[in-house]
Amino acid sequence: MEIASVIVDVPTKQTDRAFDYFIPEQWRRVIQPGMRVIVPFGPRNIQGFVVDLKAESEFEKLRNIIEPMDLEPVLNQELLKLGDWLTESTLCFKIFAFQVMLPAALKAKYEKKVRLSDGSAVKDLPETLQTFFENTDMLDWDDALKKAIVPQLQREAAKGHLEVIYMVKERVKKKKRKYVRPSVLLTELIYEIERIPANAEKQRQVLSYFSRHFHEVELKRLLTEVKASASTVKALIEKKLLTEFEMEVYRNPFEHRTFERTKPLPLTEAQQTAIGPILNAIEQNQHEVFLLYGVTGSGKTEIYLQSIQEVIEKGQEAIVLVPEISLTPQMVNRFKGRFGDLVAVLHSGLSAGEKYDEWRKIQRKEVKVAVGARSAIFAPFENIGIIIIDEEHETSYKQEEMPRYHARDVAVERALNYNCPVVLGSATPSLESFARAQKKVYHLLSLPNRMNNQNLPSVEVIDMREELRDGNRSMFSRKLFEMLKDRIEKKQQAVLFLNKRGHSSFVMCRDCGYVMNCPNCDISLTYHRVSEQMKCHYCGYESFVPNHCPECNSEYIRYFGTGTQKVEEELGKILPEARVIRMDVDTTGRKGSHERLLTDFKDGKADILLGTQMIAKGLDFPNITLVGVLSADTMLHLPDFRASEKTFQLLTQVSGRAGRHQLPGEVVIQTYTPEHYSIELASYHDYDLFYQREMMIRKMHHYPPFYYLSLITVSHEQLVTVVSEMEKIVSYVRAHVSKKAVVLGPAASPIPRINNRYRYQCLIKYKREPNLINTLKTILDQYQKDTKIGLQVSIDVNPHILM
Ligand code: ADP
Ligand code: ZN
Ligand code: ZN
Q1: Which candidate, 596, 288, 512, places its Cα nearest to that of 415?
Q2: Cβ–Cβ under 8 Å, residues 371 and 305
Q3: E-strand stretches of 308-417
Q4: 477 backbone φψ class: left, alpha, beta (φ>0; ψ -120 to 50)
Q5: Of ligand 1's atoms, which has the minimum distance to the CA of residue 450?
Q6: Residue 618 CB–ligand 1 contact under 6 Å
Q7: Closest CA to 664 of 672, 673, 655, 652
Q8: What residues contact 304, with CB distance under 8 A and at least 6 apart?
Q9: Which of 56, 329, 521, 737 has the least C-beta neighbours within 10 A?
Q10: Among 495, 298, 281, 501, which Cα is nearest to 390's?
Q11: Do the beta carbons of residue 802 and residue 763 sit within 8 Å?
Q12: pLDDT tens digits, 212-232
């Protein structure tokens, strides 16, 4: 096998296939499928994944692989196969499908450089450029950018004088530590202790230490324990009594924390009924998808833990996905508490190096359980016994860039491979999953009650329009204000939830209604208080904050919408005695601050916890007896057919924070549309009725779960081009789908322009279109090959955001 098929790191249509390379003698038997290699590609050296080895190639004159980047495969056979499936089902480039499975640290970083091409000399360059190449033949691209000489460089590159090369750089080094061990037999060591000269007392102590601990010790630890200096140890190494060596250690993000070990709790009757079929599937190696439907606090997590226990006892492995936002230490502790060092945790709070270490533990089978956010679904286990997705309805399980996969689909695909069960857990399942459970595609397991049958908190919906009519212009209704006061007096705690991030909001003129928009992207600019600037979230455009309206010159132009900071200020005015902890992107930016703020709140250092989405989940403190939602409607008016579902889920989730223990809880929801069914039904905790209402609406409008969706978006600088190309695409689609499919478009996207590119879309709704994937592929092929006209086409199969 001297030929390797390699998927190269060049994400274009033309290169989206395996290229054959010759394996030089010295790398034969070293290079295996699943390894990364450096290969020459055109004028540059790039990274690629070996997907296959073979004896012959249909191509002649193969180029040589330069070198392997790994010593062992980073992708196993199953993941390689999964990559093909990802490519097919999400219509992405193969290279993206493989890269998404690896931790960031293993994603190649290239240093872009410019150098003289072969046969060119400095004197061929224009004088302005010559100085840059006088002392070096390679120029850093970033430097070139800074010095604003890129256009000149490009001109010279076009003439063939210069070329751009990429040098691969690995991002993270394995962390190593120095260790010392005796290099003689114990008897000899003891004999040597006698022979140490009297003036070398420290050397004697070091040797004595080893006579008591006859094994390797980390150098640093040895030095502190014996209070010796590095030179003492060095002297003993020179005498060949000790040996120094390096050992790879893992950066352990939980190093300084001890976990209280927990034992399985005796299950309640409801839990036993629910866990039975899961344990059965584990024992029988049977693939099945379970939907574990139970309100917050009904004991789902305990079921996860005991199912995993079973899997571990069988010698198998478990993957647990939780939304990034609820990947709090509290959550992690429950898994670490039960399974200790057998748990690896992958979440974005870790540095790239820490994440890499956790991933290595999985790869080396040193752990049995991987807990993490979306991408943990690719944990490189090889004997998976269960995959659990908690809060399965969360939209963060769908990746919004290539590959546009949903973790739920990947879970099912992997579980099929290993013949193992998938458990989807939620108090408010996605409509798709619940519908599948109704149709018995998924196996429904219910936990109808909270532990110890605590009541769900009582919810009161407050009509903010009435507050306004009665002359209350505050962001707090009278009711919520009274209740907050009451809790402070009773020394109980309250959570205030604002469905919005940070202090971001838009600027509007109160006189003429002018809204400051991005000049490139037809969306309103966002006000950032810290930098006192207006920013565009799509293209990065920045502008100053106007103090007069550019339209009517009025002074009454100011930012709108309420941020957490503003709520905090208002609280300070109306309840000056309240101690408030604010949690949003601004206050939780630094590592560990999230946890610290929560601990402070738990320890009673504040009366009110005020925050955004990030406090909606996972909080489980006994003293919280009031939850206030300041504005329930903000999400209801998004141009998204899931807006009602998301509102219902969020309100239910937030309400679940109150009264989880002895003290009963109350919830106040403030809204401008109290009659909306998603708000009304959330206040009754009535998922089943919500499901029925929402299903009727989905059916009426041909939306999931009755129909599947695919979204084609095209963009171009010229409006005419977008429209005419989109028309061609739409008629092509129409000609290739059945009459039952609904093809909508061309229509301007909800965000009609981003970064000076006009955007048009075509939405396809369908039930069964076996040929659609091929039709979509043809469209991609056609337009991605034809890059000249500069049209960008992106296709999202089962989109979650229709913008
Ligand atoms: P969920 O994951 O559905 O929100 P949890 O598993 O977190 O529910 O359970 C809620 C609370 O009840 C937790 O404090 C948990 O320790 C406790 N609990 C769960 N199962 C049992 C049980 N069988 N016996 C006693 N307490 C339990
Ligand atoms: Zn104005
Ligand atoms: Zn913009």
Answers
A1: 288
A2: no
A3: 317-321, 343-346, 369-372, 384-390
A4: beta
A5: 10
A6: no
A7: 655
A8: 320, 388, 390, 423, 425
A9: 56
A10: 298
A11: yes
A12: 877 778 898 899 888 989 999
Lowest mean pLDDT among 123-132, 487-496, 510-519, 742-751: 510-519
What's the mean pLDDT in 510-532? 74
Task: Note the pLDDT tens digit of each residue in 294-352.
Answer: 988 899 999 999 999 999 999 999 999 998 877 777 788 899 999 999 999 987 767 77
Beta strand ranges found along 117-228 (DSSP E): 138-140, 162-169, 176-182, 217-218
> Considering the chain, what is the average pLDDT of its residues?
86
Q: Measure the CA–CA gap between 716 and 756, rounded to whole angstroms.
A: 8
In short, whether 656's Cβ falls inside 6 Å of ligand 1 is no
Cα(526)–Cα(524) distance, rounded to whole angstroms? 6
Please report, for residues 196, 207, 218, 220, 225, the alpha-carbon distance to residue 189 in angstroms, rounded to integers and kept in the order given.
11, 7, 19, 21, 19
Does residue 265 have its Cβ closer than 6 Å to ligand 1?
Answer: yes
**Overall average pLDDT of the 464-469 stretch:** 85
What are the backbone angles phi and psi of residue 455, rounded to the nearest 5°? -75, 150
Pairing of strands 369-372, 384-390: unpaired
Contact 218, 230 (CB under 8 A): no
Please choose, from the candidates 448, 432, 497, 771, the residue with its C-alpha nearest in 3D space to the C-alpha of residue 654. 497
- Cis bond upstream, residue 403 (ω within 30): yes
For residue 413, is pLDDT > 90? yes
Ligand 1, residues 301, 332, 687: which to mutate, most atoms within 8 A of Cβ?
301
Q: Which of 265, 302, 389, 426 to mutate to test the pocket of ligand 1 (most atoms within 8 A of CB)?
A: 302
Q: What is the pLDDT, as a whole number, of residue 791?
A: 87
Query: At 94, is the secondary structure helix, strand, or coil?
Result: helix
Residue 495, classed as helix, strand or coil, is strand
Residue predicted with more confidence, 502 or 310: 310
pLDDT in tens, 343-365: 999 877 677 778 888 998 999 88
